[in-house]
């Protein structure tokens, strides 16, 4: 059994480039057994598996397997303690549905990959139909995003969109737009009665929602905070709202 041990190996060097967004044109990396098993269950297009020799027997099916040393696996992984496997997957091809009739989470310019992944995972847990992320939001295929999502991108569609186009489609199709803000025009989220299709928009960690979103929203909502903190982490706020509106 050949084991790749050299960092200068061409395959290893090319694969490691997938840590950078600019090289993730067609493929991305996942690490750990949980995400790999989720990918298998979702019948994702697994292009190659990099694995330690003691785990080779755990990979079944027609998947190209490359055995590497622990040092090389550490090069390909992002975490400090990789679990013995890194897989390269083809990027899925997703298209925004022509008709929107469900419950959606919209993330506008979310910068932190951990926040992004956590909110997608929460939308998955709450049974939402899809997540839309703006062009300026973090990459969901960042390894930190992937760890935070814990495979939720295999369960529900995640679409990267231009906010202007998405808002126009939501308005045209009568999807109620709820946007979070601390402005004086917003109301307590507990006063909102949600029926029919809707989209919940969470804004940027520092700036909140844009003026465009504020102008297009059907309802501006906030979470009352009786304590002294000025704001909530956006992922925490999303969790409260996502479950309250189902």
From TrEMBL:
SUPFAM superfamilies according to UniProt = alpha/beta knot, L30e-like
Q: Domain named RNA 2-O ribose methyltransferase substrate binding: which ranges?
A: 29-95
| Family matches, as InterPro entries | Alpha/beta_knot_MTases, MRM3-like_sub_bind, Ribosomal_eL30-like_sf, rRNA_Methyltransferase, SpoU_MeTrfase, SpoU_subst-bd, tRNA_m1G_MTases_N
One GO cellular component assignment for this chain's record is:
cytoplasm
Xref: Pfam families: MRM3-like_sub_bind, SpoU_methylase
Keyword field contains Metal-binding: no
Claim: DNA-binding is one of the keywords in the record: no
Keywords recorded for this protein, A-Z? Methyltransferase, Transferase
An annotated GO BP: RNA processing
User: Which GO MF term does the entry hold, naming one?
Assistant: RNA binding
Q: Which family does it belong to?
A: Belongs to the class IV-like SAM-binding methyltransferase superfamily. RNA methyltransferase TrmH family.
Protein name, as recorded? RNA methyltransferase
What species is this protein from? Streptococcus cuniculi
Q: What is the lineage of its organism?
A: Bacteria, Bacillati, Bacillota, Bacilli, Lactobacillales
């Amino acid at each position: 059994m050949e084991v790749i041990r050299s960092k200068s190996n061409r395959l290893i060097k090319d694969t490691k480039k997938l840590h950078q967004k600019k090289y993730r044109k067609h493929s991305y990396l996942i690490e750990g057994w949980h995400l790999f098993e989720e990918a298998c269950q979702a019948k994702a297009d697994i292009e190659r598996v990099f694995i330690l020799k003691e785990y080779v027997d755990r990979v079944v099916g027609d998947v190209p397997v490359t055995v590497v040393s622990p040092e090389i696996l550490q090069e390909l992984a992002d975490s400090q303690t990789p679990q013995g496997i890194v897989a390269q997957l083809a990027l899925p091809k997703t298209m925004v549905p022509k008709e929107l009739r469900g419950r959606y989470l919209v993330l506008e310019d979310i910068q932190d990959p951990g926040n992004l992944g956590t909110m997608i995972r929460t939308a998955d847990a709450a049974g939402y139909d899809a997540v839309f992320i703006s062009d300026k939001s973090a990459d969901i295929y960042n390894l930190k995003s992937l760890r935070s999502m814990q495979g939720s991108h295999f369960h529900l569609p995640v679409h990267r969109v231009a906010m202007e186009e998405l808002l126009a489609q939501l308005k045209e199709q009568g999807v109620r737009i709820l946007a979070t803000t601390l402005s004086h025009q917003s109301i307590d989220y507990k006063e909102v009665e949600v029926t029919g299709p809707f989209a919940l928009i969470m804004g940027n960690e520092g700036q909140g929602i844009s003026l465009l979103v504020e102008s297009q929203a059907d309802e501006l909502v906030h979470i009352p905070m009786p304590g002294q903190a000025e704001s909530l982490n956006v992922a925490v706020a999303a969790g409260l709202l996502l479950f309250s509106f189902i």
